[in-house]
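Work Package 3 (structural annotation) set out to generate three-dimensional models for the target panel prioritized at the project kickoff. During this period the team completed the workflow that converts sequence records into discrete structure tokens, so that structures can be stored uniformly alongside our sequence database. As a representative example, we reproduce one entry of 119 residues exactly as it appears in the project archive.
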Amino acid sequence: MDKINLAEKLAKFSSHWSPKIIAELNGQHVKLVKFQGPFVWHQHAQEDELFYVVHGEFRMEFRDRTVELHAGDLLVVPRGVEHRPVADREVAVLLFEPASTVNTGSAGGDRTVAKPDWI
């Protein structure tokens, strides 16, 4: 039951699109990730995802609209909804998602992180 400092955890890595696990509760992973540029279009058939912007900004693209997110904003993407995060500049995001969630969901590919590192 140690406290977690997000700034300290974010300082431990610089890679983009490679989520890091910082905590686990009730079958959920709490992850930190840094985004820059566009990700892949994907969806998660079984999992909802929660995105909380720690610092910076990004947009979540959906096939029918785009949602702009800034530091302090939170967005839940329901299971089955195709989406793509895009960040013009580096952004730090906290994720809550089931431990089984793979970052690229249905898309797969070279950005897939099947077993994120714990930091």
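The beta strands are 20-25, 28-38, 49-55, 57-62, 66-70, 74-77, 83-98, 117-118.
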